[in-house]
Every structure is written in C-alpha cells, then in structure tokens.
Amino acid sequence: MTASEPSAPAGGSYWFATGDPGPRRPPLAGTVRADVAIIGGGFTGLWTAIALLDADPSLRVVVLEADRVGSGASGRNGGFCAASLTHGLANGLLHFADEIDELEREGVRNLAELVAFVGAEGIDCELEPTGTLEVATEPWQVDALRDSVELGARHGHALTFLSPDEIQAEVRSPTFLAGVRAGADQCVLLNPAKLAWGLAAAVERRGGTVHEASRVTGLARRAGGVTVRLAGGAAVEATHVVVATSAYSAWLRRLTQLFVPVYDYVLVTARLTPGQRASIGWKGREGLGDAGYQFHYFRLTADDRILWGGYDAIYHPGNRVRPQHDRRPATFDKLAAHFRATFPQLRDVPFTHRWGGAIDTTTRFHVTFGDVLGGRVHYALGYTGLGVGASRWAAGILRDKLLDPRSPRLRMRFVQSRPFPIPPEPVRTPAVELMRRAVIAADEHEGEPGWFLRAMDALGIGFDS
Ligand SMILES: Cc1cc2nc3c(=O)[nH]c(=O)nc-3n(C[C@H](O)[C@H](O)[C@H](O)COP(=O)(O)OP(=O)(O)OC[C@H]3O[C@@H](n4cnc5c(N)ncnc54)[C@H](O)[C@@H]3O)c2cc1C
Questions:
Q1: What is the pLDDT of residue 2?
Q2: What is the pLDDT of residue 447?
Q3: Running DSSP on this structure, what letter comes out for residue 252?
Q4: CA 83 to CA 396: how far, in whole Å?
Q5: Does residue 444 lie within any of the structural domains?
Q6: Which of 18, 103, 219, 304 has fewest C-beta within 10 Å?
Q7: In this structure, are 255 and 265 located in the same domain?
Q8: 336 half-sphere exposure, CB direction, 13 A CA radius
Q9: In the prediction, which pLDDT does 293 show?
Q10: Which of 359, 361, 384 to mutate to test the pocket of ligand 1 (most atoms within 8 A of CB)?
Q11: Into how many domains does the chain fold?
C-alpha cells in the first residue's frame, strides 16, 4: 500500500472508504516544545488549533492524533451539521432555561460562520444547505411534532408543520404520518471526513503541525507547563494542553466519570438508480430523522446513496472502545429491516457500507468543559451525537480559556457547570442498561416517560430532544 492510498480505516465508514485522507503525516519523534499541544485530530482538536492560530499566528500549536485525522467520530458520523449546541431546543430548555436564547443565537451564528469558513478555505466537503425534516412514524409523535413547532416559535425558530399529504409530497414512505421542516440556518449536511481532512490542511496552512500515529499515553505536570508523553517515547513540552479525545478519553482517568462511550451504527446503500431515486421523491435532499426516543437519522450522499443510522445505542462494559465493536451484525440487521419498512420501494437496494463509532455520552447530552493539572490542561467532550457543528463552538471556548480568560462566554453556566457524574463499574453497566430499557419503554408507551426517566429528569439527568 502506498502512503496516499486510502486505507479505509475509521471502522469501514463510507466516508473513509470512498475518500482520500492523503499521505500519512509523520508521527512525532523526539521531544519538541509547543505553546499548545492538542490531543486528538477530530473536529474538536482541529477547530481548536484553527481558533488559536487565527487569534495568535505566532503560537506553536501541535496536534497529536493516535490514528489518522478524522478516524474517530468525526470521520464516521452522519454528517448532519446542526446549529444546536444543546442537543435540541427542548433539552437546552430542560437544563439551561436562563441561557437558552443566548445559546440558540450562538449556535446559529456558529453554523453560519462554519459554512462561511468552508467556503473561504475552499474545503470540498460536499456541504449542502438543505435543512431537515423530522418525521412522525407513530400517532403520538404527530402531537409531539406540533408541540415542537410551537416551542420553536417561542424561541425564534421558523419551523413548519407538514400534514400527512405534505410530508408524502416531500419524501414518500408508508411510515411517515407528519413532519416538521427546519431551514438551513438550523442544519446543513456535509461529508464529515472531508471536512476533517480539510480542517487539518487549514491548521497546517496557519503554521500548526499535525502528527498522525501519535498516541498520547500520559500527562505530567512540570514547572511552567505539562509534559505530554507518547507511545514510543516521543514527548511534547507544552505550556498548555487541550484534550480532544471524545469517547476515547478513558486514557485520562479523571474524565471517565463524565461520559460513557455509546456505540452508534450506520448503513449506506448502493447508489440509487434513477428509477429508485424517483420513487422516493426527496427532491429537497433534506436530512431526515424520526421523532421517537430511539431515532433513525437518514440522508442522501452526494452520489445519491442513502445513509441510514441510529436507533440502537450500545455500551460495552468497562468503557471499551475497540475496533471489534465497529461491527455489530445484530444492529446492522435491525437497521436494514427498519430501512426496508420505511422505503419498501427500495427493497432490492443492497447496503455497501456498514460501520459503527463511539459517541461521548453525558448525562446532559451536550459538550462539557473543564480543566485538570492546575488549569494547564483543558478539555471539551460530551456532544452525545451532535458534535459536528457544536465542536467548532467548543473550540472557541477552549481558545478563550487559553487566550482570553475574561471572555463573558466563559461565565455562562453552560460552560461552567458539569453534568451529573456517571458511577464507575460495576454500577455503570447496569445503570446504562436501565436507562436504555427506560428509553425503549417510553417509545412503546406512546412517548410517556416511565418512573425511571421521570426520576432521572428530576435529578437533571437525561434529555428531552
Ligand atoms: C456513528 C456516529 C454518527 C454520528 N452522527 C452525527 C451527526 O450526524 N451529526 C452530529 O452533529 N454528530 C454526529 N455524531 C457525533 C460527532 O461525530 C462527534 O460529536 C464529533 O465528531 C466529536 O468530535 P471530536 O473531535 O470531539 O471527537 P473524535 O472525532 O472522536 O476525535 C477524537 C480523536 O482523538 C484521537 N485519540 C483518541 N485517543 C488518543 C490519544 N490517546 N492520543 C492521541 N489521539 C487520540 C482519536 O483517534 C480521534 O481521532 C456521530 C457520531 C457517531 C459515532
């Protein structure tokens, strides 16, 4: 294999299998000095490097990526790039009623800036400003969608309710009972791996350094900074460190109470023939999601395949994130059956790609920030499945922590407070399973949260999105 040949890692994701991550960047060798060492070459790490270098081009910024740029969640996701910073308006209201309007404004501004950045830097990431359609597939979800339109209107969202005929005129499926349209100010679609690779190039254009195959194994405090140790003996003597390792963050024990890595799985079909494409409508190419607690997300790719993911959320005891979990035949079969029920007109279309990836799930379902090692090490993680857009905003917070500690944004409760901690094993596995069963039960009982979800809500745990 040559250095630039796509090696299709990243769990077999369609984005990696069909894109070219470029020549491998050399691993870090020896000991180097940096103003900021960033651990993790996904969206959080790369956007942070860009934000820092845009603010101060003289900074020495080094990004350390254990595998390849984008090989974590950033290169495996559905490519829905949403404005919401809070995993949806309802979840934001649940936890931050006092700040929600500011958070919504920040999110919309962040998405607009992200789109402008992609254009200005010439990053070809197949960005499509389509907006979304959320669909009801059970009668109880129709009322929930109507309520979401009213709620959105109170917070400045221009959402449109679509009747059964109207949603069928958009996308044809026997399971769709109603829908809600949100515009491109709320969500765009893109090819996430191409975005990650484009961001890495943007870091390098700004004078930052990106190392691949550079796994960090530990951090040690030293006078005036932190020593970042890598497998193989290399090291960075850094003044500040940013940890951007998302669901893989168990390497830093202090972070394990903040999140559980939960696997999400995705299928991609073969390219649709013109006849198959015409049979589903979907002329607006919106990103779709259904409105259950356990939901599917689905969209067209640039070459007219359908990406279909979500529903199952699988935790592997002991916070395990391993390549063997990237494939789960039982979930792939379940997703395929759900796809055929949704689009029976596509019953003969095969799936060409199947993969999974770990999601950094917190008890509040949105990014959380913090510092360790005497304030020299900053982290941002916990997007819980909605980090493509929010990671850019989080990068701005990390930049402010390092360069502008008086920034008013740092005083937001959203930034300062922490989610309810998740107990360690052996309690963690049964607790996650209890939550999973409660969510399944809520879907089976017309969206009614049972006693467990209500108790969790009372403790500020869980979500409403
Ligand atoms: C299947 C799936 C579907 C999703 N769909 C969507 C979606 O449609 N829309 C959306 O908004 N969000 C979605 N998400 C979530 C989104 O992808 C993430 O929130 C986002 O990519 C997080 O970016 P990150 O940079 O924080 O983490 P990651 O992209 O996971 O990056 C972390 C990086 O750190 C590296 N790393 C780990 N340990 C070390 C170490 N010790 N040393 C050096 N490097 C290390 C990893 O290799 C990885 O590249 C989805 C996630 C998954 C898994």
A1: 35
A2: 77
A3: S
A4: 15
A5: yes
A6: 304
A7: no
A8: 17
A9: 85
A10: 359
A11: 3
What is the rounded distance in angstroms from the CA atom of residue 171 to the CA atom of residue 247? 34
Query: Do 308 and 454 belong together in one domain?
Result: no
Q: Beta strands of 209-305 (E only): which ranges?
A: 209-211, 216-222, 225-230, 235-243, 260-269, 287-290, 296-300
Cβ–Cβ < 8 Å for 369, 378: yes
Ligand 1 center–CA 14 separation, angstroms? 15
Q: What is the pLDDT of residue 4?
A: 39
Q: Which residue stretches of the chain have pLDDT < 50?
A: 1-6, 465
CA-to-CA separations, 170 to 23, 65, 149, 159, 179, in angstroms, rounded = 42, 42, 18, 15, 10
Q: Which residues does 153 contact at the CB level (< 8 Å), separation at least 6?
A: 159
Q: Pick from 358, 352, 426: which is nearest to 387 by CA?
A: 358
Nearest-angstrom CA–CA distance, 153 and 159: 7
Domain range enclosing 57: 20-77+192-259+364-416
pLDDT at 50: 99
| Ligand 1 binding pocket includes 11 (Cβ within 6 Å) | no
Q: What's the pLDDT at 5?
A: 40
Q: What is the pLDDT of residues 243-259, one digit of tens each?
A: 999 999 999 999 999 99
Contact 264, 309 (CB under 8 A): yes
> Radius of gyration of the chain from Cα atoms?
21
* 62 Cβ inside 6 Å of ligand 1: no
pTM higher than the cut 0.85 = yes
